[in-house]
Amino acid sequence: MTDPKIIDGKALSSQLMGEIASEVASLLDQGLPAPHLAAVLVGDDPASQSYVASKEKACKQAGLISSLYKLPGDISMTKLFEVIDFLNTDPEIDGFIVQMPLPPQLDPGKVIERINPSRDVDGFHPVNAGRMMQGIPGFVPATPLGIMTMLERYRIPTEGKHCVVLGRSNIVGTPVSLLMSRKATPGNATVTLCHSKTPDISDLSLRADILIAAIGQPGFVKAKMVKEGAVVIDVGIHRITDSAREKGYYITGDVDFGEVYPKCGMITPVPGGVGLMTIVSLLQNTLKAAQKTYQY
């Protein structure tokens, strides 16, 4: 039986993958090519390799073309820019990402600015960030987009609600706080953005109707920090070593699920929650790039 308290990212992402596949089939029926997503992977970071592999698998399932550009970890900015410039103009590419984090010799800000905003399906370019801030259609970062889609598809009321966001990163916390506050559905919430320098975080989170945890600390959110009946969105994903388990580790989020579940109204699990929605949202952005949905 489906648990009514669980916001099931696995089921929802599967549904959305089917919708994307249908739209890709429609493009093919019109004699148009399948959307093409490329990824640039610099170095051998295991987490980055895992994410890119998941992206490639998802592309295959939905009918998208996927390309991977693997570059050495000691590559220079000049050489990386040459690859980005090629991807910016290659007529066969619709969108691409440069996988983060990057080695220390590379400036991530300059790398992001080098990407053509109309192919920036990660939604990190300042042009896309500015469009989002002003409510102009553009590419929204994948994880915030996935969160908003969850709220929309599960028909979770946001208008007039107090939303507390834990974490202010440019990847999740800051953009989702803007999306929740703007005049839209979902949206129209009153938003409090907390971070490492915020005093009395527990007092603020306890007032949240919707609590979005993206603070990067495993098990940070405890039951005492959550209002009775609140909606809890757990963005964190952490691999914790545990020799007592068969795999030698377990995956957990920023929320202490066991503590918080009995008290909250709805909650995203980890794994099986927001993480799955991130890749689907990246594919949605790539489809929009192929459809030339946004004019720059």
What do these coordinates show?
The protein starts with 8 loop residues before the first helix and ends in a 6-residue tail after the last helix. It has helices at residues 9-29, 46-62, 77-89, 108-114, 126-133, 142-153, 173-181, 201-205, 257-260, 274-290, and strands at 36-42, 65-71, 95-98, 162-166, 190-194, 210-213, 231-234, 238-241, 249-252, 266-267. The mean pLDDT is 96. α6 crosses α10. β4, α7 and β5 (190-194) form a beta-alpha-beta unit. The strands form 3 sheets. The chain has a 5-stranded parallel β-sheet with strand order 5-4-6-7-10. It has a 3-stranded parallel β-sheet with strand order 2-1-3, sandwiched between helices. The protein has a two-stranded antiparallel ribbon with strand order 8-9. It folds into 2 domains: 31-116, 3-Layer(aba) Sandwich (Rossmann fold); 142-277, Rossmann fold, CATH 3.40.50.720. The longest helix is centred in the N-terminal third of the chain and has 21 residues, at 9-29. The chain contains 10 helices and 10 strands. 38% of the residues lie in helices and 16% in strands. It has 296 residues and is an alpha/beta fold. It is globular and about 50 Å long.
Structural class of the secondary elements? alpha/beta
H/I helix tally:
10
- CATH superfamily of the largest domain, by name, is NAD(P)-binding Rossmann-like Domain
| Radius of gyration, whole Å | 19 Å
Q: What string, H for helix and E for strand, traces the elements in order?
A: HEHEHEHHHEHEHEEEEHEH
Low-confidence stretches: none
Oligomerization category of the chains in this entry: single chain
Instruction: Describe the sheet with the most strands.
Output: 5 strands, parallel
CATH class identity of the largest domain: Alpha Beta
Domains, number: 2
